[in-house]
């Protein structure tokens, strides 16, 4: 799934997709945002607005 339109995605689905991609394909958030060429701060803010925080030690949003 392409994340280039993440700003218009449902935040719950976005969180699920991002966590899956970090776990299965990228290993961390930095690699994911670099691959999709998206702004890390904007992605984090979008998910924070829905109540999800990024936990670097767990490498996932919760």
From TrEMBL:
InterPro entries on file: DUF4250
Superkingdom, natural source: Bacteria
Name recorded for this polypeptide: DUF4250 domain-containing protein
Classification lineage: Bacteria, Pseudomonadati, Pseudomonadota, Gammaproteobacteria, Vibrionales
């Amino acid at each position: 799934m392409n994340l280039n339109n993440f700003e218009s995605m449902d935040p719950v689905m976005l969180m699920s997709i991002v966590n899956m991609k970090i776990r299965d394909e990228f290993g961390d958030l930095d690699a994911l945002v670099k691959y999709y060429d998206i702004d890390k701060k904007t992605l984090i803010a979008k998910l924070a607005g829905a109540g999800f925080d990024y936990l670097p030690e767990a490498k996932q949003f919760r």
